[in-house]
Amino acid sequence: MRLSIGIVGLPNVGKSTLFKSLTDNDIVVANYPFATIDPNVGVVTVPDERLQKLTELSDSAKTIPAIVEFYDIAGLVKGAATGAGLGNKFLAHIRDVSAMIHVVRCFENNDIIHVENSVDPKRDQEIINAELALKDLETVEKRMTSADKEARGGNKEAIQLTKILTEIKAKIEKAESIVAYANEPLLKGLGLLTAKPRLYVLNGTTENVSDELKTRIETEGSQYIILDLSQKIDLGELIQKAYACLGLMSFFTTGKDESRAWTTPIGSTAPQAAGVIHTDFENKFIRAEVIHYNDFLEAGGWSQAKQKGKLRTEGKEYIVQDGDIMNILHS
């Protein structure tokens, strides 16, 4: 599975407009359903003012930011879970990404067709969520059948899996969130759509967005951002939220050659983070010199940080923090 974000929603809600704003790619933005069939892919840099300051402080020749992939997935419609509107193909595209940006149309504009013939953000959110849930229900029920057979044979893992799948099935049927199960090892490979983290883009102005919709999203355990995609806007906050939505963080390396933001999952150990730089660094990890960005900035650079005793030596058990600056020592 890619560390990527899929942009989803009904047709004509602003998905491709958002994608084009994010990536500046020349893609089809059309006023009719299914203008996008195969997903467009864009690589977007994650804005981080810390990186620029490190470049200046180290007088680095290059600056290399963290990146995140965005997939512009064609609009889903009611009945997608049973194949309507090429639904099965589009749902498969969602299965391939790690998280979702769900674009909900909140603005009124009679010149832009709405697939349901009226603007109702609450209904539209429910349509997408229902289609994702129906597909997950199908997936869970299929896996329950095989797991149940294995469980009757005494397989302990299958017994535990059956218990978890039963819990998930009940939650899906009650339209409850299953995001808490996203990292459950026994579910790896199922690609459950509603377990993926979600960030809502509410396309419109603050006046277009009801308190009820905000509450529904918060109750689901998701975040939202209100953007009027018809206007030229700064998407820095959205990119940062999307990056965090993937459960990712940045640590840094800095020096004369380059200052660089490296991407690693939150909770990574020092060797795992080192492996992002080079696989050999993880396998042959000895220790790491570590200083947090704030301390590094206050010290004024590597040599000053050493003189002031700000550098720490960390071993294999150290959990890397967002904003750590690391120098990896390996055999």
Keywords:
331 residues; six-stranded mixed sheet; Ubiquitin-like (UB roll); 12 strands; flat; alpha/beta; Rossmann fold; three-stranded mixed sheet
Write a brief structural summary.
The protein has 11 helices and 12 strands. With 331 residues, the protein is an alpha/beta fold.
Summarize the biggest pleated sheet.
Answer: 6 strands, mixed
Structural class: alpha/beta
Strand content: 15-25%
* CATH top level assignment of the largest domain: Alpha Beta
- Count of structural domains: 2
Give the C-alpha Rg. 23 Å
Which ranges are low-confidence, i.e. pLDDT below 50, for 5 or more consecutive residues?
25-37
CATH architecture annotation name of the largest domain: 3-Layer(aba) Sandwich
Give the overall average pLDDT. Answer: 86
The helical percent reads 25-40%
Helical element count?
11
